[in-house]
Amino acid sequence: MSDNDNEDALEPATAVLPLDAWHRERGARMVEFAGYWMPVQYEGIIAEHSWTREHAGLFDVSHMGQLSVSGEGAAEALEALMPGDFSALGEGRVRYSLLLSENGGILDDLMVTNAGPHYALVVNGATKWDDIAHLREHLPDEITLTHHDEQALLALQGPEAAAALARIAPMAGDLRFMQAGLAIWDEVPLWIARTGYTGEDGFEISVPAEAAAKLADALVAMDEVRPAGLGARDSLRLEAGLPLYGHDLTEEIDPVSAGLAFAISKARRTEGGFPGADRILGLLADGAPTRRVGLALEGRMAAREGAEIFAGNESVGRVTSGGFSPTLGHPIAMGYVAAAHTEPGTALEIEMRGKRLPAKVTKMPFVPHRYHR
Amino acid sequence: MTRYFTEEHEWIAVEGETGTVGITDYAQGQLGDITFVELPEAGSEVKKADSVSVIDSVKAASDIYAPVSGTVSGVNPALEDEPEMVNSDAEGAGWLFKLTLSDSSELEGLMDADAYKSYVDGL
Predict the structure, then answer these.
(1) Contact A302 B61 (CB under 8 A)
(2) How far is CA B88 from the centre of its chain?
(3) pTM, to two decimals
């Protein structure tokens, strides 16, 4: 027995996050991910996946980078690096955005919140050091960038998340999807955003590292809440059609091909002024030659990252992530396919281990989002 | 019937010239929820350490190697509809395939149950 999947190159020393002991006490299997020891599962991926879809799963995502950007002109400074309209973003509002390279490639996908005195950014764990370097290089000197590595980040996701969290932070129940605010719980400041990566209603909670275990204990003590690991996080986000940076998104991929044109604010479509604007606005007008699509497979064999996609004998694309969908009971995948073959319902084949697996182009999300709008 | 184990976490239970092959309970626990088992074709000849089967879990795909050389004489038909049987009974009803051994001296290089247990305890 051996894993076929290549792990990403790891940093030589694997770092420990604030809840490391908490996970181990609860029987988590820990794996190295983005340079940290992270819990991949507790009782099992499918059980945690289903529990999150039906109740509420508690995920530790403290590996992600929590940054703040402040100073006179912070919104404009961010707009020079991303295609969002942050000047028009109201206080307590969250936007999904993209850090873009000069030619319009995606350096990272992230959440930007107008937190009042500053903009709060949550970036991917695997890319945070590159993001910080990129921001330091490109933000003007009068803008301050702070990395809040003293904060842990917990995600509480699922249809019962709101009822659970409101018991310790009543304001959470008043937030709508993509809104955020501050709660004080037992003298602990909790920065709560109604956001997530599962397609379910839920929250991401920034908490001082020293209070993270106390918060996690308080949440899993509730009947609705069970801990869930990275394994379930990945299968949930795949069902929700949400791309994973480093797999479905890379520096070689632009926002239009990725189906993320919604992250280019209306005002920015006419004004431009973000990195790669010429190329990206051209793709918006003319259509991208390849596009990210969802694929539903027949049978039970999963298609994995890197598998080639065929229309008859013609190679038309490649799978960027794939796996078994616990909710649907069959494998699903996402990948990039030549535009002519992206219409939902198009029959394609995916080559896995010398076999051709029938697959149909499917609208994403595979499992409907249930955000609290 | 004697049961042998490999460092890759396969087991083979041998009776005469026939061996039944599966993965160990430790292995199924490491793989997590199993969603598909790709089995070798009956009649195919396999060499010791060849990748002969693939197990898909929610997380990843894992190769299963032939513990010894031989000819595949049958596969577990129940796994087509119930691959999760490998999770629930890895060393019994969740067996993968049967082999007619071509060189039973290859068994000498494998571990017995006690040696395998010490091997896993050391992981």
Answers:
(1) yes
(2) 15
(3) 0.94
By CB neighbour count within 10 A (0-12 exposed, 13-18 middle, 19+ buried), where does A68 fall?
middle
Beta pairing partners, A21: none
Cβ <8 Å between B30 and A1: yes
Which chain B residues touch A if contact means CB-CB below 8 Å?
A: 8-10, 23, 27, 30-33, 35-36, 38, 54-65, 83
Look at residue B1 in the predicted model and tell me its pLDDT: 84
**pLDDT per residue over A50-77, tens digit each?**
999 999 999 999 999 999 999 999 999 9
**Among the residues of B11-55, which ranges form H helices?**
25-31
- Residue stretches of chain A with pLDDT short of 50: 5-7, 10-11
Predicted confidence (pLDDT) per residue in B34-76, tens digit: 999 999 999 999 999 999 999 999 988 999 999 999 999 999 9
Cβ within 8 Å of residue B123, ≥6 positions away: none
Tell me, what amino acid is at A262? F
Best to test chain A binding among B34, B50, B55, B56 (most A CBs inside 10 Å): B56
pLDDT tens, A190-213? 999 999 999 999 999 999 999 999
ipTM value greater than 0.90: no
| Contacts with B, A 40-79, CB within 8 Å | 40-41, 44-46, 49
Which parts of B7-83 fold into alpha helices (H)?
A: 25-31
